[in-house]
Amino acid sequence: MSSVAENLDAYWMPFTANRDFKKKPRVISGAQVHYYTTEDGTRLYDMFSGLWTSGAGHCHPKIVEAVQKQVAKLDYCMSFQVTNNKAIELADRVTHIAPAGINHCFFTNSGSESVDTALKIALGYHRARGEGNRTRLIGRERGYHGVNFGGMSVGGMVPNRKVFSANLIPGVDHIRHTHDVERNAFTRGLPEHGAELADDLERLCGLHDGSNIAAVIVEPVAGSTGVLPPPAGYLKRLREICDRHGILLIFDEVITAFGRLGGPFAADRFDVTPDIITTAKGLTNGVIPMGAVLVSDAVHDAFMQGPEGMVELFHGYTYSGHPVAAAAGLACLDLYKDEGTFEQAASLEQHFEDLLHSFADHKHVIDVRNCGLMGAIELAPRDGAPGARGGEYHKKCFWEENLVTRNGMDVLAFSPFLNSDPDEMQQSFEGVRRVLDSIE
Ligand SMILES: Cc1ncc(COP(=O)(O)O)c(C=O)c1O
User: Fold this and answer.
1) How far is the CA of 326 from the centre of ligand 1 (A)?
2) Atom nearest to 255 CA in ligand 1
3) Is 145 near ligand 1, meaning CB less than 6 Å away?
4) CB 98 within 8 A of CB 264
5) Are residues 7 and 386 in contact, defined by beta-carbon separation less than 8 angstroms?
């Protein structure tokens, strides 16, 4: 064990079984392109491209250079009442690749902050228009919108909510999730069944009266609860119901934006334009923490009234629009364009899908699903020990196959690099197969 790994006691790790981890820590100390390295020099292939973050590969020289230059030139500048040139440029450039009508950008530092910002903007929007009664927020079961109180409340991950149940924000309801293994198992791409589940929103409008609902937030493809692509037609139906009742539609694109679905935004792929888009991760390729909330003209303009000298939205973060993060974001947008990263991602989809679905007849596998470069293989849980099979898989991949993978209980999730080498991708799945063959 390395010296670093011996001094782990102080470090309380997020979303990790700390005691189990610390018995045999998995510690990364370097990365280049598609591989991590440990202190003893072992190279591990990253099958999750960071945490859905690093689609362009690790330590991309263009991002590294941009960050190094920026930190030496302007390390920080407050973003209240003054701002920096890089934040202005990034807001302009991100909105230029956003869907038509989405022309405004509010910076945050993470996906969780983007979500809570978006919820606050939605509430403020209705109030600014004299509809302050619209306070209800609607999320979806099996949704993940980060860990702050707003996002946790509209989120639908039971373990994340359990301890905080009584303290979640009031006035939140959930529509049902769209995962239907009985009807849709082993679907390649969008499931055929389930568009009608969008009508849950209509039902909630009937219950509360639609005029009391501010916004509905969904991930176009749910990521953290095991990659749940939307049933064909589902998102369009959700949009129609929102339009009928004056409800804002928020797409949480923290995972799906910036190439994961083969284009700038999931909104493009599904041809559904929300009113607000939340982003983070691929905005800076994970290099510097940064998020952005992209907002339609209608929503933004509703705030721009009253005395001009007054703050329109009492919200913001010390690090909103951080110049070094913004420089990383600008370098990302450059390389996404210059290297054709989104197109490359799209060209890899079929190969990825074929590799995933080659596990369909494996003895432990009960479902395989995918959309863009998001994919999941779901294992049957062991009798009386849900999650054990997935946990064992993760460790064996790391220690025996030099693969960094991710599992949520018994769902194995995959987030390949947007610029993956097809052979490396294939070899990594061969390692996954060896591990699955070896576990009971
Ligand atoms: C859809 C979605 N929203 C929000 C978040 C939270 O982002 P962060 O961990 O940066 O706060 C995530 C993180 O994975 C996410 O997938």
Assistant:
1) 19
2) 16
3) yes
4) yes
5) no
Q: Tally helices (H) and strands (E) across the chain.
A: 17, 15
Q: For the whole prediction, is pTM greater than 0.85?
A: yes
How do residues 289-315 score in pLDDT, each as one tens digit? 999 999 999 999 999 999 999 999 999
Going from the C-alpha of 58 to that of each of 63, 328, 421, the distances in angstroms are: 10, 13, 14
Residue 3 — very low, low, confident or very high, per pLDDT cuts 50/70/90? low
Atom of ligand 1 nearest to the CA of 256: 1
Task: Report d(CA 232, CA 33) in Å as an integer.
Answer: 35
Q: In 343-437, where do the E strands start and end?
A: 365-371, 374-379, 403-404, 406-408, 411-414
Residue 146 Cβ < 6 Å to ligand 1: yes
Task: Decide: 329 and 90 in contact? Cβ < 8 Å.
Answer: yes
- In angstroms, the CA 168 to CA 237 distance is 28
Q: Which residues contact 111 (CB under 8 A, 6 or more apart)?
A: 145, 146, 151, 252, 254, 278, 279, 280, 281, 291
CA angle 275, 278, 284 (to 5 degrees): 140
Q: Are 139 and 103 in contact (CB under 8 A)?
A: no
Is the pLDDT at 242 greater than 70? The verdict is yes
Is there an atom of ligand 1 within 6 Å of 408 CB? no
Q: What is the pLDDT of residues 63-86, one digit of tens each?
A: 999 999 999 999 999 999 999 999
- Return the best residue to mutate from 15, 115, 116, 147 for the ligand 1 pocket (most ligand atoms within 8 A of CB): 115
For ligand 1, pick from 49, 54, 224 the residue to mutate: most ligand atoms within 8 Å of CB: 224
408 Cβ contact list (under 8 Å, min separation 6): 224, 225, 226, 390
For the CA of 143, the closest atom of ligand 1 is 1
Distance CA 176, CA 60 (A): 40
Residue type, 243: D
Closest approach atom of ligand 1 to CA 280: 10
Q: Which atom of ligand 1 is nearest the CA belonging to 219?
A: 1
Burial 399-437 (b: 16+ CB within 10 A, else e): eebbbbbbbbbbbbbbbbbbbbeeebbeebbebbeebbe
Question: Which of 145, 254, 260, 374 is the best mutation target for the ligand 1 pocket, counting ligand atoms within 8 Å of the beta carbon and taking the most?
Answer: 254
